[in-house]
Design goal:
This protein is α/β, with parallel strands linked by helices. Helix content is 48%, strand content 14%. It has five domains: 1-105 and 196-283, Rossmann fold, CATH 3.40.50; 114-188, Arc Repressor Mutant, subunit A, CATH 1.10.10; 313-383 and 550-648, Rossmann fold (3-Layer(aba) Sandwich); 388-542, PCRA, domain 4; 705-746, no CATH class. Mean pLDDT is 85; it is low at 544-551 and 652-695. Bound molecules: adenosine-5'-triphosphate and magnesium ion. Pfam families: DUF3553 (PF12073), UvrD-helicase (PF00580), UvrD_C (PF13361).
């Protein structure tokens, strides 16, 4: 072995080196989180280029997300500089598009083909359904798309699909739609997203010359996150690597989290059967996390039956305990997270970019976003849209703005045909023209339509319907809460029923987001002194302002657990650790889904390097419904001796709190129908007000004061900001405590 080359990898452990230097033949790197799988892949590319007589363009490396591909490219460029040019690093889709651009003519498409996104796809599908005279209500387009997409993931052609469902009336209609839809795509010289993979496989299978070309070109093929490949992707990889057989698959069966999208965990589990001569490398040392975090992750995943046993250890012995916080509600949960982050950043211990907040569903981000904004903490949402950027949220806000201010042409234009009322762009153009002429708002023009000759009678009646609705909402506004008004708008305009009729995952998400928006209005009504629509809208524009955030700033990363795959952060918060949220309600009833949720939890835990928090709320208004949360079973699956409850301090005061609670004023009780005993440092003020009187007064505490905390013991005050004091405890480190909630005594 060339010693200079070996020196390049001296920072790697023996197994990693072995994986890097096993260049030829099938190689499976099956290893747990943070064991350096992606690191090995990057170094392996370097090794192959340094030791084999090949070109960079002979290497193909595929990852799962654009973000992961970008990061891998950067890491390879760091190692190889200009020599990295020409290596194919990308996602399945980006690599396939490249190949199709070259040869798709062989399938009868032009090379200038377009890619249809979801919206284009829907339009085409609706045309298809119409042409077949099929009732759209029975064959809701998005539901049909999901069936087609599912078939494509499994490489099932329309003809094969027809064979499978020949005796099923409903499905046979979908087969007809699939066939015509596919024909129409071709007429439009278009591919949908799934086609990108399917057509590449088709190209390879029907045109051996093309396959032969790429098989020879890609002498080394590598796939990261192999556990999440679906059947079509698996086939593609098998075909591409069949000639040289230099396929390196990297993955972790414990992190397979896309079963619901057709990913097939058996692709990784059966690798050794498929390639009998495969070298299998297991990496067992984790370099990312402390042993507390790693042991916790291992402890949780052990509850899954269907897995390959793996050992994973770390040299980073010990570490901070996993911190569990039970909040009163989602607002308090958000505040807790935001304040923890802010405190550590203010103390210069961490910067914003050290933190990630992970959650199960996008709808949970709102309360966290708002709390971060209240604390002025910059954040960025990955792999999803910011709550207030979502279409359905923008739509409902546009309605509210118009109801509040009929002069708002922008909002009116946004929703005049949402949901669809048959008011076309031409009519709207005309209205706008007239409004410009008259120097009046479009809404005023609408009010004077009666004798207008510039719109048809048919349009007139539709426009009249619209202003009747808006007029009614304006009257309701005077007598209703904002939250009730929102419900009325969603109901009376048919917005919700349209979404319900779609009955797809996507429409379901939209409904959930709208419910979440209602939650935000209820919350507003509870805490704001002025409760009118105008104040509500003002409070929202404050929130929506975050868009103006400076891009160079360091920010906290917010994302779903799914998008966090492959990434790492110093400190991770997993929020919403409640039964019904994580695991989801659906998963609770289905063992297979439950195991997938548990793997998702394993992914979440193993993103953390040093600190992990799990938070849950006693009560949460989510999707417009109030839920009383029980902590997630995944919290209970953590080893008890590695966790620490941040609520314990308050629990010591249980009796005291209980008696205080009895004294509580009835209205407060309603607002904060909470278990006072479980309140932590950042709990709602009113409930424990009396307790603070029993302890020391705010003014008694100053820098250098010696105090005793019921749980943390003796300490010295090192800084003070209003009622927040930071205390260096003799045995428990430095903590920030709010004097309004926690009883301290002077030593
Ligand atoms: P995941 O399963 O989450 O995708 P992974 O197995 O791909 O994780 P990497 O992301 O490659 O793991 O590595 C995790 C961390 O460990 C990274 O910060 C990486 O730089 C570091 N690391 C990997 N190998 C070593 C090593 N031999 N010595 C020191 N640090 C290492
Ligand atoms: Mg990785």
């Amino acid at each position: 072995m060339n010693s200079e080359i070996e020196k390049r990898y001296s920072h790697l452990n023996e197994m990693q080196k072995k994986a890097v230097m096993t260049a030829e033949g099938p190689l499976l790197i099956l290893a747990g989180a943070g064991s350096g799988k992606t690191t090995v892949l990057v170094n392996r590319i370097h090794y192959i280029l340094a030791t084999r007589e090949i070109f960079p363009s002979n290497i193909l490396a595929i990852t799962f997300t654009n973000k992961a591909a970008r990061e891998m490219k950067e890491r390879v460029e760091k190692l190889l500089g200009e020599n990295a040019d020409g290596i194919w690093i990308g996602t399945f889709h980006s690599c396939c598009v490249r190949m199709l651009r070259r040869d798709i003519e062989k399938l009868g498409y032009a090379r200038s083909f377009v890619i249809y996104d979801r919206a284009d796809q829907l339009i085409l599908l609706k045309d298809t359904i119409k042409e077949l005279n099929i009732n759209e209500k029975l064959y809701e387009p998005k539901m049909v798309i999901n069936h087609i997409s599912d078939a494509k993931d499994k490489l099932i052609t329309p003809e094969e699909f027809g064979g499978i469902y020949k005796d099923d009336f409903k499905m046979s209609k979908i087969v007809d739609i699939y066939k015509l839809y596919q024909k129409k795509l071709k007429e439009n010289n278009a591919l949908d997203f799934d086609d990108i993979i399917v057509k590449t496989v088709e190209l390879f299978e029907n045109h051996p010359d093309v396959l032969n070309f790429y098989q020879r070109k890609f002498r080394y093929v590598m796939v990261d996150e192999y556990q999440d490949t679906n059947k079509a992707q698996y086939k593609l990889i098998s075909l591409l690597s069949a000639h040289h057989r230099n396929l390196c698959a990297v993955g972790d069966d414990d992190q397979s989290i896309y079963g619901w999208r057709g990913a097939d965990i058996s692709n990784i589990l059966n690798f050794e059967q498929e390639f009998e001569d495969a070298t299998v490398v297991k990496l067992e040392q984790n370099y990312r996390s402390t042993s507390v975090i790693l042991d916790s992750a291992n402890h949780v995943i052990k509850n899954n039956m269907e897995r390959k046993l793996k050992r994973l250890w770390t040299q980073q012995d010990g570490g901070d305990h996993i911190k569990i916080f039970k909040a009163g509600d989602e607002r308090e949960e958000g505040d807790f997270i935001a304040r923890q982050i802010k405190d550590l950043v203010d103390k210069n211990e961490r910067s914003n970019s050290d933190f990630a907040v992970l959650y199960r569903t996008n709808a949970q981000s709102r309360a966290i976003e708002e709390a971060l904004m209240r604390q002025n903490v910059s954040y960025k949402i990955y792999g999803g849209m910011k709550f207030y950027d979502r279409k359905e949220i923008k739509d409902i806000i546009a309605y509210l703005r118009l109801i509040q201010n009929p002069l708002d042409n922008i909002s009116l234009k946004r929703i005049i045909n949402v949901p669809k009322r048959g008011i076309g762009a031409k009519t709207l153009d005309k209205l706008e023209e007239v409004s410009l002429e008259r120097e009046n708002s479009i809404y005023s023009v609408l009010l004077e339509l009666e004798h207008a000759d510039y719109v048809s009678t048919r349009s007139k009646s539709k426009l009249n319907d619209f202003i009747t609705h808006i007029g009614a909402f304006m009257a309701m506004k005077e007598v209703m809460n904002v939250s009730e008004l929102i419900e009325k708008v969603l109901e009376n305009t048919g917005y919700i029923s349209e979404l319900k009729a779609e009955n797809t995952v996507e429409s379901q998400t939209r409904i959930e987001n709208l419910r979440e928006f209602i939650s935000s209005a209820i919350e507003f009504e509870q805490i704001s002194e002025e409760k009118d629509l105008e104040t509500f809208l003002a409070s929202i524009s404050l929130v929506a302002d975050i868009d103006a955030m400076d891009d160079d700033e360091e920010y906290v990363s917010l994302m779903t657990l799914h998008s966090a795959k492959g990434l790492e952060f110093n400190t991770v918060f997993i929020a919403g650790m409640e039964e019904g949220i994580f695991p989801t309600n659906r998963a609770i009833l289905d063992e297979t889904q439950l195991e997938e949720e548990r793997r998702l939890c394993y992914v979440g835990i193993t993103r953390a390097k040093e600190n992990l928090y799990m938070t849950y709320a006693h009560e949460r208004t989510i999707y417009g419904r109030r839920n009383y949360g029980v902590s997630s079973r995944f919290i209970n699956e953590l080893p008890k001796d590695l966790t620490e409850s941040l609520n314990v301090a308050a629990r010591n005061d249980k009796r005291q709190a209980k008696s205080n609670r009895n004294k509580m004023d009835e209205s407060i009780k309603q607002n904060f129908a909470l278990d006072a005993a479980s309140f932590g440092v950042y709990s709602s003020k009113s409930v424990l007000d009396d307790t603070s009187k029993a302890g020391i007064d705010n003014s008694d505490v100053s820098l250098g004061s010696k105090i005793v905390h019921p749980r943390f013991g003796s300490g010295t005050v090192v800084s003070k900001d209003g009622s927040n004091v930071t205390i260096a405890f003799e045995n428990k480190g430095v903590k920030t405590i709010n004097l309004e909630y926690i009883k301290l005594e002077l030593a």
